[in-house]
């Protein structure tokens, strides 16, 4: 029997295009950082059960979202339905170089009430999962009491043999301050069996150099860390021992950078959980990310 990977996060209705595409020619889809990772992991891990843990509403968009996830083979048994709230929406605007800007409508979305008892799963429903994965965006939209409950839950979960994977994915607009974000994330880095931070995000959050980020992560109690740094070889940490990761191929043309880190995480986690060494998993994550950024939107069409 395969592994069960519980991916905790939000899913939103995605609108994307250039400014000239607004409003009539926008591309629509579904996305969210952890949801993107869940979809790509489900595609790569056919023998395993990848579950998406979130809240949606009782509306046509939520129905379509669940159908999309199920068509991708993602388990939605732990996707609950909130009585009154709806999924969030976001707009990606891309310029001619592939750089993007975002507009969000998510402040009262259903996933913000995850694990509060307002429909949907409880943290105890995750006890039987082999792997729990979430991001700093998940953490940011959680109610403060839920963040604390998660930190209280994870040590026992890991002691029973569970694996916890975490990507900081810092987005300043979701936090009251950088200090609040750092305070919330630091305990999870110490609890992570697999840490997947972005060097750029950590530099923004702490005002550090790349070297200082690596030194700080060497002080955390995480089992392994991949410090992602764009096309620069990542910094790898295993049992606090630091080394350079493998050289990475560069992409000449970027159509849309949306989902690059999410897809890297999916490729890396799928490879590691299937027994690959860290370097091979880095290359698998990078190869998938390179394909994703050559396509508009966070999710590649199915082959």
TrEMBL record:
Signal peptide: none
Protein name, entry field: Carbohydrate kinase PfkB domain-containing protein
A Gene Ontology cellular-component term: cytosol
Pfam families for this protein: PfkB
Family statement drawn from the similarity comment of this UniProt entry: Belongs to the carbohydrate kinase PfkB family.
GO molecular function: 2-dehydro-3-deoxygluconokinase activity
Keywords linked to the UniProt accession: Kinase, Transferase
Entry-linked PANTHER family: 2-DEHYDRO-3-DEOXYGLUCONOKINASE, HEXOKINASE FAMILY MEMBER
GO biological process: D-galacturonate catabolic process; D-glucuronate catabolic process; DNA damage response
Record keyword Calcium present: no
Origin superkingdom: Bacteria
Domain named Carbohydrate kinase PfkB: residues: 4-301
Xref: SUPFAM superfamilies: Ribokinase-like (SSF53613)
């Amino acid at each position: 029997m395969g592994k069960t990977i519980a991916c905790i996060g939000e899913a939103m209705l995605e609108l994307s295009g250039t400014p000239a595409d607004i409003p009539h020619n926008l591309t629509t889809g579904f996305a969210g950082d952890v949801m993107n990772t869940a979809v790509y992991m489900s595609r790569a891990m056919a023998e395993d059960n990848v579950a998406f843990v979130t809240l949606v509403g009782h509306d046509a968009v939520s129905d379509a979202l669940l159908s999309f996830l199920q068509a991708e083979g993602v388990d939605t048994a732990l996707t609950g339905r909130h009585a009154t709230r709806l999924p969030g929406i976001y707009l990606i605007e891309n310029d001619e170089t592939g750089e993007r800007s975002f507009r969000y409508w998510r402040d009262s979305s259903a996933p913000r009430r995850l694990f509060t008892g307002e429909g949907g799963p409880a943290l105890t429903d995750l006890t039987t999962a082999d792997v729990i994965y979430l991001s700093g965006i998940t953490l940011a939209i959680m109610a403060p009491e839920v963040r604390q409950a998660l930190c209280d839950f994870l040590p026992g979960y890991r002691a029973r043999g569970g694996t916890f994977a975490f990507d900081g994915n810092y987005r300043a607009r979701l936090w009251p301050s950088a200090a609040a974000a750092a305070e919330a994330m630091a305990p999870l880095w110490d609890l992570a069996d697999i840490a997947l931070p972005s060097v750029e995000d950590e530099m923004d959050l702490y005002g550090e150099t790349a070297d200082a980020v690596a030194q700080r992560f060497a002080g955390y109690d995480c089992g392994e860390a991949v410090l992602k740094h764009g096309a620069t070889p990542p910094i790898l940490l295993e049992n606090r021992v630091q080394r350079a990761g493998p050289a990475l191929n560069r992409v000449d043309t970027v159509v849309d950078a949306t989902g690059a880190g999410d897809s890297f995480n999916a490729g890396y986690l799928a490879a590691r959980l299937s027994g690959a060494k860290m370097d091979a998993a880095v290359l698998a994550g990078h190869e998938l990310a390179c394909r994703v950024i050559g396509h508009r939107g966070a999710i590649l069409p199915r082959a």
